[in-house]
Amino acid sequence: MSSSLDTFTALPRECFGTFKIFGVACESSVFEALQVGYRWIDTASVYKNEVEVGHAVRRWLNETSNENNDIITVTTKISPYELLDANSAALACLKRLSLPSTVRKIILIHWPGVAREKHHMTIHREARNAAWKVLCGLKKEGLVDVIGVSNFNVYHLKLLADDLSSEVWYEQPAINQVEMHVKCQQRELMRYCNEHSIFLQAYAPLGGLGAPLLYDIGEALQLDVSSSAAVLLQFIAGCCDSVVVKSQTPERIRDNFLNLQRSPSPELRERLSKMDENFHYCWDACNVV
Question: Entry's SUPFAM superfamilies (predicted)?
Answer without folding.
Answer: NAD(P)-linked oxidoreductase (SSF51430)
